[in-house]
Write the structure tokens for this entry.
Amino acid sequence: MGREEEIIKERKKKLKELRKKGINPYPARFDKKDSVEKALKAKSGSKIKTAGRVMSYRGIGKIIFSDLQDFSGKIQLVFQDDKTPAKDSEFFKKYIDVGDIIGVEGTIIKTKTGQHSLLVKKLELLTKSLLPLPSKWHGLQDKEERYRKRYLDLIMNPEMRELFKKKYVFWKSIRDFMESKDFMEVETPVLENTPGGADANPFITHHNALDIDVYLRISMGELWQKRLMVAGYEKTFELGRQFRNEGLSPEHLQDYSQMEFYWAYADYNQGMELVEQMYKYTTKKVLGTLKFETMGFKIDMGKKWEKYDYEKMIKKYTKIDIYKATDNDIKKKLKELKLDFDPVLDKWKLVDVLWKYCRKKLAGPGFLINQPVEVSPLAKRKEKEIKKVERFQVIIAGSEIGNGYSELNDPLDQEKRFEEQAKKREKGDQEAQMHDKDFVEALKYGMPPTCGFGVSERLFSFLMDKPIKDCVLFPLMKPEK
């Protein structure tokens, strides 16, 4: 029998003994009055009633020391023969294991070494653990196991618990910012007949009651929120989950959170001003500073944000004039740069592969502007440069961390662009947008000038300088065989 099997057997034996004694090892509740964080801040002599998980056990003479951990922190427990009731000390010694969840009452003291501790006066078992926690020193070393057993990762690694506290602050700060600017939060469909609002490959599922195939949304209700602009709403936003059936990378997931806002009577210049304010506000709330390092770049969100011209940046780094170059010119350059590309892509998708190569050289923060209309099927054309659109993408540390534009509200232009996108799908481009006839009909009733923008949790992963999968509580994994 292996060591772990012996531990499990011993714990099951204790469980059986407890039940024989009439002690419930899984009671329904405990009146927890204080968090561990509050106990750590309490003065000596303060009375504390708290609960958490036992993380260690060490006996020295007539004293037992143990670490108790809850969501807010970790505190040392002290069981001392002449100060802790004998029945509680004996119960702890005989029945409590590392990993068990207990409730305790006691007094804050300083030990001889000066450590802030809780002298236990009363003990209650709240949950008996049957499986041992990972070793304190070795823990969960395998990254895939850490993803699969995130609950253990969170128990053993306080930095991971802190990361997800910051993620809560991240989304709360974005929501607070939008509401402070008088945007109203809305909810739009997750299941759609026609997925819209992005160049992406959707997930397909079947609706049994209607007997139709439907799609999981690929944007945060872009075409629905623009319908609300038609309806007369002027400032809306939605924060939720969206889904894209695409490849994995340190920056991409298939199931992730995003926020999108739509602002009637505003254009992309006003959008850029608002987004810069929002990013600065959120960064300061999450990190406490506007300066940080990520992906090998030093970033200062407080400095003047750059403006990067799409055409000029590509010409600067690749010598390609995107409006004069042929498909073959671009393919030749992509091969020269050893960049992977799908031969089925049209000229402008190939150009965008070139842009992504150039983007990695830009630290930011800044905005990419003046994109070609061919890569922006939902953005309004520039009045004096009709080959380009009023679009802006946030650039930080060589990546796109947000996308917005003056929304196209010319129904005939939108209809034509959808038709062009449909032709691309017929040629094999699965990320080309589908023709949403109902949306075009809504536009024909009239949508005011509108600016729209979306940001995903990729921004948070960049603030943390971690792959995006590390910043998801329970990432999707292949089932274990």
In short: The CA atoms of residues 317 and 358 lie 6 Å apart. The first helix runs from residue 3 to 20.
